[in-house]
Amino acid sequence: MLIVSLSLIACLFYSMATSHVLSRLFDKQGPNQKKTLILSTVAILTHMLVLVNSVFTHQGQDLSTVNVALLTCWVIVVSVTTVSLRFPATLLLPVVYGFAAILLLASLFIPHHIIMDTINVDIGLVLHISLSLLAYCVLIIATLYAIQFMFIDKRLKQRDLAIMTSHLPPLMQVERQLYQLLFVGTGLLTLALASGFYFLDGMFAKETIHKTILSIVGWLIYVVIAFGHRVFGWRGKPVVISIITASGVVTLGYFGSRFIQEVILGRF
């Protein structure tokens, strides 16, 4: 009951923050930063309490797909909210807040499975998991910047006066931050894969081979994009679409397979 109440409270405040930002999306002054920060902070702290009570249970540590997704979402929300304090993120905030609200609500209806009774402290495994989570979060934020870039670029080409006078960030700033995130995320994903091959023995085991292959495919796409941008100056819509595609492949590799196994097939 506690988790249900906390989830609904977090969902409510995320929704309020989303509504506030969207209502002033094209306003010259932008959303009220203080109000947005208050609403999002309450949501983030409540979201954190949901995670603590969901993961650490009496039976053991519940590291189901739902809880991993909630943790990943929380890290992304905190990161984007922090970035918004310095740079305009008017388009990103309603996306991450809205998604967090939907995910929290959905988590109440998706069964959780206890998949670990105890957490064995294995430095190699912890390093691999930490790097993988961090890389995924950075690359998803880069994908959000890619979507933001496409939106602003399209509206500018349509000579939309509303976007020219809005609080949205300049297109060149979005593009610069997009590639910075891409380089950092690709580097972290490289380290995550390298640590997996070095510390883990089952990267190509039957149960995980699809995850490994999809992760490598996504990594290759990111590397090609990063190399092409740095050496040949690749940019624009094809690059943005490729980034979104790579993120989809990596997401499918991890969350797709686990969701099917844990929720649809009921395995854990």
From TrEMBL:
An individual GO BP term: cytochrome complex assembly
Annotated TM spans: 36-56, 68-85, 91-111, 123-147, 178-200, 212-232, 238-257
InterPro entries the record matches: Cyt_c_assembly (IPR002541), YpjD/HemX (IPR052372)
Domain named Cytochrome c assembly protein: residues: 42-264
Key words, A-Z: Membrane, Transmembrane, Transmembrane helix
Keyword Transmembrane helix: yes
Signal peptide start-end: none
Top-level taxonomic group: Bacteria
GO molecular function annotations of the record: heme binding
Pfam families: Cytochrom_C_asm
Entry protein name: Cytochrome c assembly protein domain-containing protein
Organism, scientific name: Pseudoalteromonas peptidolytica F12-50-A1
